[in-house]
Write a structure and sequence with these properties.
The structure is a homodimer. The first copy, chain A, has twelve helices and eight strands. The first copy, chain A, is of the alpha/beta class.
């Protein structure tokens, strides 16, 4: 395949950033991939994994000649990093980030890039990942069959968006467009809310009672074993989306409670059936190859 | 091992009943195991699985000479079945059931056995199982390393309880005692509540949004794909326990909501950390072999 970009700089070549680097290199989508990080040991792992052609701990040196800079560090670092990028990136280059929330991120990055209206900024969220972290777990096909959400900001040249879309499609993802707010509301419901619910389920029981628990409780609460500080950052960057999701969830629980308290077990069963049918439908949908998914969306 | 019982009759030799039959036969804990069911096809499967020495669709014929009758059918069938057992079981025999709720069950069975105070009745709940159902999925070691909860009723001869306890211990389970109410409150929190929460999570999203979902949502809601009619029966037999668990859960969610709405991310992180620590502790506890668990409880 012809290169889509000349030099691509990946800031934070961990699981996601490293998989982007691996995918780009395996498919020759760029002439050169630079990995940029703070720790020499992580960068060594990224090189060993094949996630980058070269690495550096110097942000300015690593991004100066890049046509595309990908931010793949925690979302709360994006503002500071972009302020520094604004001082060194070359004219007409493209900045993107792969953070898991968008409204706060778009605001922080747009503010930092105010003086550089030659730079295009395209926020994205690849909906793929793993419990595992670090470049040693990166794979070139992490995004095959996945979705990548773009939440474009006004004033972005259509050519820049089209070019980044081609890159993500070449990595195997379907690109979907929505606004930052739509994105944040969506991920609150499908990702952040389940985390809060799982933690609340665990906080409802006593530790010693766990010895009686079956696989149901263990699976339902798996995500509650995630890193609290990572989740703190996510909650900080999407409080409104999560509050809205929590309120919908509480509404759904109140419905079930009403059926139970009123002895209306027929309605409760219909409510359980609705959930089962929807979940089984979601599993079916996820099994389908990408081409059929596109078909579904076009129908 | 010497027989603990002469003839054991298992009413409903499915996954749980069949595994009890297999476990008893493998360890020679009874002289004879009779499997009793409504459908000849299921009984054939039970015989093929080795869950019974003989089978019959005739409840009276199958239980008349049994020293122990195990009810392993859905909890809402126990009342009617026990009324019939009261007319045919031999003097001094033992009735037990393995239902997943206790208060309603104990009430229904005690009422049905009122005229037969020679029969001992011991309610139990083996905390083991699987998503799979039917005798074809039964295994002789299903209860190895598990817990079996006994919720004894007043007036039961200590010798009968001791004898059934020996049977469960021979099947590999630790026997724990609690009241029917304590049991129902416990299972509401560790099993019924996670099911309601998983269904409510699914009912909070739109089906088409599921295409963006990661493994987190899928795992958190796995139990919501369970059989709605089975769950209806469970909810019908434990509404008070589930309502109490739902209210505790809502309280825990309200705590998280308050931290989020007030921007108190330090307290939110502490709350997430509490859940992670507790869940990780539960996983550790479940990994331990039975002897260390007993040790823990004795400490």
């Amino acid at each position: 395949m012809e290169h889509i970009f000349d030099t691509v700089a990946i800031v934070g070549p961990g699981l996601i950033g490293g998989s982007i680097g691996l995918g780009i290199r395996r498919r020759s989508l760029a002439a050169h991939v630079v990995g940029i990080g703070r720790r020499a040991s992580s960068l060594r792992k990224a090189r060993q994994a094949g996630a980058a052609d070269s690495t550096t701990t110097d942000l300015e040196a690593g991004t100066r000649s890049a046509e595309l800079v990908v931010l793949a560090t925690p979302v709360n670092t994006f503002g500071e990093l972009t302020k520094r990028l604004a001082r060194c990136m070359k004219v007409g280059a493209l900045v993107t980030e792969v953070g898991s929330t968008k409204e706060h991120v778009v605001e922080a990055i747009s503010r930092a890039l105010q003086a550089r209206n030659d730079l295009a900024f395209i926020p994205t969220h690849p909906m793929a990942g793993s419990e595992k972290r670090g470049p040693e777990n990166a794979t070139h096909d992490l995004f095959e069959g996945s979705r990548c959400i773009f939440t474009p900001v006004s004033g972005t040249p259509p050519g820049a968006t089209e070019r980044l879309k081609r890159l993500w499609e070449a990595l195997g993802a379907d690109v979907h467009f929505m606004t930052p707010r739509e994105h944040d509301r969506l991920v609150a419901r499908i990702s952040h809310l389940p985390h809060i619910a799982a933690s609340a389920l665990i906080n409802t029981i006593e530790e010693h009672e766990g010895v009686y628990a079956g696989g149901g409780l263990i699976d339902t609460t798996r995500v509650a074993s995630g890193e609290p500080n990572l989740w703190k950052t996510i909650c900080q960057s999407n409080p409104h989306g999560i509050l809205e999701a929590l309120d919908s969830f509480s509404g759904s629980l109140a419905t079930a409670r009403e059926f139970l308290a009123g002895g209306d077990f027929e309605s409760l069963t219909a409510w359980l059936e609705e959930a089962k049918k929807k979940r089984d439908g979601i599993l079916e949908m996820r099994k389908k190859p990408r081409s059929s998914l596109q078909q579904l969306e076009e129908d």
